[in-house]
Amino acid sequence: MNLNPRKLLNSKWTAVKPKNKEKHFLITEVEFDENGNLIHCLIEAILSKRSESIDWTQLKNREVWLQGWKS
Fold this sequence. Notes:
The chain is mainly beta. Helices cover 0% and strands 46% of the residues.
């Protein structure tokens, strides 16, 4: 999967194997270093509003994440 880190902010994601009924997520923060490398990515569960930092490259794993909100 080709994923542009510059387009991650406010992107929607679905967990393939939801935990604690948290299935749908939104990227709420991204931060880049002076060279344009993504150094921080925060993902928030829509249902619980719980946030956690995530290694953005994990989003490329289709066994864990699907882009968009899927039912």
